[in-house]
């Protein structure tokens, strides 16, 4: 079974590796990073789709599906489980969604491994040390462990949330690896842009963690209106149960069912902190737009930020439709990607002025 899974991961990775090999780019290593970055972004979005369709336990074991390499081979076990519970968590469709997610993850692992091997093999002639691709390789291994625990620990919220944050860290580091292979000219920086861009990234990652906590606790519909929450500007809050981290899905630390007020708290904190994100990222965009070299990138951050607001509100008024929810998760990943690019450009500039 493990051999079949490994072969499947290699076959899925063969297509992006072929793109790199056939590329006319003179820097094929940079092309490999770009393709890996693209596939990692897709994996994050598909991971959101997997989570939002409740397919995380579509195959209740790991790394295979009922001890098999694919749902075809486990068809009888899946159908037996589906006959007992027709809506899941195990159905044939959900099993395929979960396994496709794992296959893509394995292919990303192959690509990152290739990056590390090439970086060490060519370390004497490369501009940078192989430490970053090595760190990426280690992070991918850790991410794989959290992928396993997501299944074996039955979607425990803290495990799933960390799994999401690690994916975004990998995305950000891939951006950094790709950007440093691309030469840029130095340019003048608006005042305080170095500091505010770092703060913006920290604030964004905190908001992503809060959003992941909403999703993994199934609290997206705890408030059914906006800007009020169930008709209240500040609803009854239950912080103690809402942010008890090490607990089962849907349970309190004592093993009781989590109260609705805790779910409301999780939802309300995420939507309230969004205003902090808008202010900090808005200031970052305004400062970055003052530099011609960063204007296009800043406009992209501003556009995605505005779309995030619309998709966030739409998920409430349209009762969390799947397409909008996936787009909301994709928007968060896009913001991390663009802010990572902005932070790199700011820090790679050799010249800074204070206006």
Secondary-structure element string: HHHHHHHHHHH
Largest sheet: none
* Rg measurement, Å: 22 Å
Number of strands: 0
C-alpha end-to-end distance: 62 Å
**What percent strand?**
under 5%
Described by the principal axes of the CA atoms, the overall outline is flat
Total DSSP helices: 11
Low-confidence stretches: 350-355
pLDDT averaged residue by residue:
93
Alpha-beta content class:
mainly alpha
Estimate nothing, just give the exact number of structural domains: 2
Pick out its properties.
2 domains, 355 residues, 11 helices, mainly alpha
Task: Give a description of the structure.
The chain folds into two domains: 1-183, no CATH class; 187-355, no CATH class. The protein is 68% helix and 0% strand. The chain has helices spanning 2-22, 28-52, 75-84, 92-121, 131-152, 157-180, 193-216, 239-242, 260-288, 292-317, 322-348. The protein is flat, with a radius of gyration of 22 Å. The relative contact order is 0.11.
List the helices and strands and how they pair.
Layout: H1 2-22, H2 28-52, H3 75-84, H4 92-121, H5 131-152, H6 157-180, H7 193-216, H8 239-242, H9 260-288, H10 292-317, H11 322-348
Helix pairs in contact: 1-2, 1-4, 2-4, 2-6, 2-11, 4-5, 5-6, 6-7, 6-11, 7-9, 7-11, 9-10, 10-11
């Amino acid at each position: 079974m493990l051999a079949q899974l490994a072969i499947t991961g290699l076959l899925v990775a063969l297509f992006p590796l072929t793109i790199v090999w056939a590329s006319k780019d003179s820097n094929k290593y940079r092309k490999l990073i770009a393709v890996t970055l693209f596939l990692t972004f897709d994996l994050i979005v598909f991971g959101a789709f997997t989570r939002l369709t409740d397919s995380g336990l579509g195959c209740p074991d790991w790394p295979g599906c009922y001890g098999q390499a694919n749902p075809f081979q486990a068809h009888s076990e899946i159908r037996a489980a589906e006959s007992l519970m027709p809506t899941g968590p195990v159905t044939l469709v959900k099993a395929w969604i979960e396994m496709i997610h794992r296959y893509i993850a394995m292919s990303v692992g192959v690509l990152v491994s290739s990056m590390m091997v090439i970086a060490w093999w060519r370390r004497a002639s490369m501009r940078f040390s192989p430490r970053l691709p090595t760190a990426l390789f280690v992070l991918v291994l850790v991410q794989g462990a959290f992928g396993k625990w997501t299944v074996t620990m039955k979607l425990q919220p803290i495990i799933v949330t960390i799994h999401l944050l690690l994916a975004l860290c990998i995305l950000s580091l891939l951006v950094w690896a790709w950007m440093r292979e691309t030469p840029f000219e130095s340019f003048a920086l608006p005042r305080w842009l170095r500091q505010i861009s770092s703060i913006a990234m920290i604030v964004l990652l905190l908001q992503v963690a809060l959003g992941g906590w909403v999703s993994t606790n199934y609290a997206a519909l705890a408030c059914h209106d906006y800007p009020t929450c169930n008709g209240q500007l500040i609803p009854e809050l239950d912080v103690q149960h809402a942010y008890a981290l090490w607990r089962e899905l849907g349970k309190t630390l004592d093993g009781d069912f989590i109260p609705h007020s805790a779910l409301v708290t999780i939802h309300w904190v995420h939507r309230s902190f969004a205003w902090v994100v808008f202010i900090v990222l808005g200031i970052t965009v305004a400062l970055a737009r003052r530099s011609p070299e960063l204007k296009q990138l800043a406009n992209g951050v501003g556009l995605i930020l505005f779309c995030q607001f619309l998709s966030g509100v739409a998920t409430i008024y349209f009762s969390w439709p799947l397409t909008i929810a996936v787009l909301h998760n994709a928007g968060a990943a896009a913001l991390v990607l663009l802010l990572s690019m902005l932070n790199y450009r700011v820090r790679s500039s050799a010249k800074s002025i204070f206006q």
